[in-house]
């Protein structure tokens, strides 16, 4: 049995989660469930990023203490993950004492390695992104990533010798550290320029971990946050750290690839810890054609979507509507089309038609496997191994359409006896196998099918035709038409 460690970024808790956050976490969940289905030992980490000036400011605006705000919003994240059936193994918070301890130990290692020095930071800072920006990076005087106002700051600071690790970082990226290539190329071209040392403390931010070598500073929120990937495994001595590190995938949005592919490996090189295997970047959702923003009022709350359409329909939409690396547009009308389209016509109707006929059949349902291999398992596996769950779901639905075609072509309503039994046997076994392949994407639907077929939780090893079919029971429709 192999191991598989996947992480999401930890989310800022200045506000409640929206579909952008739900997307990163859901895609990670699909990977985690897929590798579990393959019998791998999986650890899936997610959590919340709770320090820094942005949260401090938000709390102040809302008339709360930072602690009250982070407790409240961190809980909201957990609630959404529960509604979306996210199967994380641990939820980490950067305000956990054990995390703070890990950050301090990590800093000690970097300090002992001579990679921290005192200086003066003069430049710009984007508070929403918690990011330092040089004058040449500014776009029309604004943040080049989010387009918002930046602050000019000039303050005493401690620096990390990021520049020292440039060559090692470039080598790693050239060797496929970042997926997909377009994001790797972006980072490589940024690394063509000068790589400056990184300011890792803030003199004027008090909501943060105190910098152990000078407590008048707090640790820069990104330096603190990245260490969650280790503290989430109880680094340095935890069994989970020994079993799961290095991470197999850090799944991140495209705008934070720099932090994960440049700053994070440099920190690890300095602390003498192996670097993660892959940084996988996903692209962004717009909503009704526009960037999601509070001022436009188009921020989509994932809980509303789950309550209206169900977790699985929403999950299906998120994975099916766009390839992971391309931007895509979210709209409720597109979501409804997916439900009324392939979820109803390809999947739900197939299950209903087959099981209705099977319930009426007297006698044992058995036959010869005409449809073995209708979902190309090797191709699905290859899609996941290429970090591409979008292609995987398409392959699965191709298989589902083959079963529909088989069932229609055989015209089972005109058959009886052995001939009818054979068609039912093939269709029911196919549906059982479909439920296995769908389980990483639509776990509730998969369980509903298992209940209809009276089978227990299955793994990928069960995705082959058995000799006969146990009792079946047509339950409620898996999906219903939405207007
Ligand atoms: N706290 C940092 C991450 C620290 S990791 C050590 C952070 N948090 S975040 O809450 O701003 O965003 C986290 C994730 O949400 C990112 O992966 C980001 O890409 C994703 N999304 C936020 N808005 C999004 C869309 N509109 N579309 C898709 N994903 C987006 O960054």
The major pleated sheet works out as: 7 strands, parallel
So, the CATH homologous superfamily of the largest domain?
HUPs
Instruction: Estimate the global geometry from the Cα principal axes.
Output: elongated
Bound molecules: 5'-O-[(L-methionyl)-sulphamoyl]adenosine
Count the beta strands.
15
Head-to-tail CA distance between termini: 46 Å
Overall mean pLDDT stands at 96
Number of domains: 2
Q: Tally the helices: what do you get?
A: 17
**CATH level-3 fold name of the largest domain:** Rossmann fold
Q: Could you explain how this protein is built, in words?
A:
This protein has 483 residues and is an alpha/beta fold. 47% of the residues lie in helices and 14% in strands. The chain has two domains: 3-282, HUPs (Rossmann fold); 331-462, Isoleucyl-tRNA Synthetase, Domain 1. Strands 1, 2, 3, 4, 8, 12 and 13 form a seven-stranded parallel sheet that branches. Helix 11 packs across helix 12. The two termini are 46 Å apart. The model has no long low-confidence stretch (mean pLDDT 96). Bound molecules: 5'-O-[(L-methionyl)-sulphamoyl]adenosine. Residues 9-12, 20-21, 23-24, 49, 225-226, 228, 252-253, 255-256, 284-285, 292 line the site of 5'-O-[(L-methionyl)-sulphamoyl]adenosine.
């Amino acid at each position: 049995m192999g191991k598989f460690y996947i992480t999401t970024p930890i989310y800022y808790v200045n506000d409640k989660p929206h579909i952008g956050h739900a997307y990163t976490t859901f895609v990670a969940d699909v990977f985690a469930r897929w590798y579990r289905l393959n019998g791998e030992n999986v650890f899936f980490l997610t959590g919340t990023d709770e320090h820094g000036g942005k949260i401090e400011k938000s709390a102040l605006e809302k008339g709360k203490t930072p602690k009250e705000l982070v407790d409240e919003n961190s809980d909201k994240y957990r609630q959404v993950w529960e509604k979306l059936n996210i199967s994380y193994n641990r939820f980490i918070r950067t305000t956990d004492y054990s995390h703070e301890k890990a950050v301090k130990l990590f800093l000690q290692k970097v300090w002992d390695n001579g990679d921290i020095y005192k200086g003066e930071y003069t430049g710009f800072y984007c508070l929403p992104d918690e990011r330092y920006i040089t004058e040449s990076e500014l776009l029309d005087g604004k943040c080049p990533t989010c387009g918002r106002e930046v602050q000019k700051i000039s303050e005493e600071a401690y620096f990390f010798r990021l520049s020292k690790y440039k060559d090692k970082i470039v080598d790693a990226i050239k060797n496929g550290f970042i997926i997909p290539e377009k994001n790797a190329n972006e980072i490589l071209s940024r690394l063509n320029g000068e790589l400056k040392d990184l300011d890792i403390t803030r003199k004027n931010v008090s909501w943060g971990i105190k910098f152990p070598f000078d407590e008048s500073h707090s640790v820069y929120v990104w330096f603190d946050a990245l260490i969650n990937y280790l503290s989430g495994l109880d680094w340095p001595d935890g069994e989970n750290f020994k079993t799961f590190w290095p991470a197999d995938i850090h799944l991140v949005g495209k705008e934070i690839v720099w932090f994960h592919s440049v700053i994070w490996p440099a920190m690890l090189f300095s602390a003498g810890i192996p670097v993660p295997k892959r940084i996988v970047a996903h692209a962004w959702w717009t909503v009704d054609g526009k960037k999601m923003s509070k001022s436009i009022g188009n921020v989509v709350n994932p809980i509303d979507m789950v309550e209206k359409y169900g977790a699985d329909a929403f999950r299906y939409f998120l994975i099916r509507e766009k390839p992971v690396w391309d931007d895509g547009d979210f709209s409720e009308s597109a979501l409804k089309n997916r439900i009324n389209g392939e979820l109803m016509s390809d999947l739900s109707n197939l299950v209903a038609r087959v099981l209705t006929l099977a319930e009426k059949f007297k006698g044992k349902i058995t036959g010869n496997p005409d449809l073995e291999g209708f979902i190309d398992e090797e191709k699905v596996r290859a899609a996941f191994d290429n970090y591409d769950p979008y292609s995987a779901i398409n392959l699965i639905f191709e298989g589902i359409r083959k079963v529909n075609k088989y069932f229609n072509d055989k015209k089972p309503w005109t058959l009886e006896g052995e001939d009818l039994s054979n068609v039912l046997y093939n269709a029911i076994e196919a549906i059982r196998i479909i439920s296995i392949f769908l389980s990483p994407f639509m776990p509730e639907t998969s369980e509903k099918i298992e209940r209809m077929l009276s089978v227990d939780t299955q793994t990928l090893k069960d995705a082959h035709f058995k000799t006969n079919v146990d009792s079946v029971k047509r339950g409620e429709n898996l999906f219903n038409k939405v207007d």
